[in-house]
Predict the 3D structure of the following.
Amino acid sequence: FSWADPPPGGDEVGGEFGRAHLEIARDSKDPRVMVIKRQVVFDQHFITPDKYPAWRGFLSRIDRLMHKSVRAVPAGSKAGAQ
């Protein structure tokens, strides 16, 4: 098996709430290794009730960003191009 092409990473900018970042890439030194870097920064420690819907939206977008999958495919498969 080998790694299939990784899904795209991305950024989620939450304005006053914070930000999130995801990187997914093959290791340049070892094709058997997939490197995944995640970062989430919360800039507020208290969310007022009037801002809660926007806060929940921000958390939902972070959740979608961070739940990407990497796949292993049979060696020689077109999806597993190195």
Remarks:
- The radius of gyration is 17 Å.
